[in-house]
Specification:
The chain is 47% helix and 13% strand. The protein is an alpha+beta fold and 75 residues long. It has a domain of 50 residues. It has a three-stranded antiparallel β-sheet with strand order 1-3-2. The longest helix is centred in the middle third of the chain and has 10 residues. It starts with 12 loop residues before the first strand and ends with a helix.
């Protein structure tokens, strides 16, 4: 079952399932990244983990690679 991402403000808090859906990942991948200290920033509220939609968008943008830059790294 997928968790649709609500159409709301960029500051919205998303569940792990919603964040994974938005990033086209599994929740397990996000869990692994948290344990390793990598991946997008998150917030904890007790045992609940939440991701800000704006943080996920910024994290994705920071990892965008242009075709020209990708070719240069392969040399």
């Amino acid at each position: 079952m997928t968790a649709p991402v609500p159409a709301c403000s960029a500051d919205a808090l998303l569940t792990e399932m919603q964040a994974a859906h938005l990033l086209s990942l599994t929740p397990r991948t996000l869990q692994t990244w948290r344990l390793r200290g990598s991946g997008p920033a998150f917030e904890c509220f007790g045992s609940r983990v939440r991701y800000r939609q704006a943080t996920l968008a910024a994290w994705l943008s920071a990892r965008t690679v242009s075709t020209a830059a990708a070719g240069e790294g392969a040399r």
